[in-house]
Each structure stands twice: as structure tokens, then as C-alpha cells.
Amino acid sequence: MTRAGRFLARTCRFACDEAGSVLVLWIMSLVAVLGFVALIFDMGRVQVTHGELQTFADSVALAAAGELDGRADSITRATAAAAEVADTNVYGGDGTLQGATDYTLSFLTGLPKADTETNLAGYTLTAPYDAGEQASAAMVRVQVQRSDFFDLN
């Protein structure tokens, strides 16, 4: 048998041989399972981060709302209380959410009568606040500033 014939015979035998095919399927399945496990961990981390963000917003809102008592300096005190909570507590594990630059406070005199009404312009107070507006503030809305993961500024 010539050299080319032996090579052709080995190639045909290799192509027809089924030994080791289970190993290939097992490795492909393992890669798929590990991919799903990684996806589950990522989605879990997203949910935990969302919870921390909500906790941050709730803490700031509760601190600010606790100072809205109808006095002439209530918005000033509410802003200071929100800043104190945001500065003294660390959210996001590594201090990602910490400080007054991470949120915006809006003060409202009330809410619309219907839940379907989304325009709050008639109820929102605008800065600078005079003593009468500060006394009329009844609610606070906290909006947390969006920060990208890779944003290092």
C-alpha cells in the first residue's frame, strides 16, 4: 500500500470512528450549563443592585419627608436631612451612591386626585423657595441620578 493509500485509509477510519463522541457532547453541554450559571449570577447581581438603589432612594426620601412639618424652613431642613443620610450611609457596596450629587429632591404641595394623572407641574415647587412655599411643602420626590458602571467621572 502506498503512502497516500495509508493516509486515505486512516482518514476514513477516523471519520467513521465514534469513540470519544460522548466526550465532545459532554464538553459542549458543560459550556452551555456554565454559561447559564454565569447568566444567573449576573441577573442576581442586577437585582441586588436595584434593591440597594431603591433603599438609597427610600432612605433619602424618608429623611427629607420627616422634616416637612409646615414650618417656614421645612425645605431647608429636609434638604439637610437628606444630605446627612446620603453622606453618612454607604450604598452600592463600595460607596457608589454617597452624597448629594447622586440624587435630586423635588418638593410637592400635594398629589393629583386621579392616579392616572402623571403631570405634577401644578403640585411641584420650584427653587428658590420662599417661606410660604417651604411651609406648603407636604411631600418629597427623590430621583437617583443614573450612573454607568464604567463611568469614572
The parts where pLDDT drops under 50 for at least 5 residues are none
Structural class: mainly alpha
User: How is the biggest beta sheet arranged?
Assistant: 2 strands, antiparallel
The count of β-strands is: 2
Helix fraction?
Answer: 40-55%
Outline type: rod-shaped
**Rg (C-alpha, Å):** 30 Å
Strand order of the largest sheet: 1-2
Helix/strand order, N-terminal first = HHHEHE
Q: Give the N-terminus to C-terminus distance in angstroms.
A: 73 Å
Count of runs of 4 or more consecutive helical residues: 4
* Strand residue percentage: 5-15%
What is the arithmetic mean of pLDDT? 81
Secondary structure: elements and pairs:
Layout: H1 3-16, H2 21-65, H3 74-88, E1 103-108, H4 131-136, E2 139-144
Quick gist of this model?
This protein is 52% helix and 8% strand. It is mostly helical. Strands 1-2 form a two-stranded antiparallel ribbon.
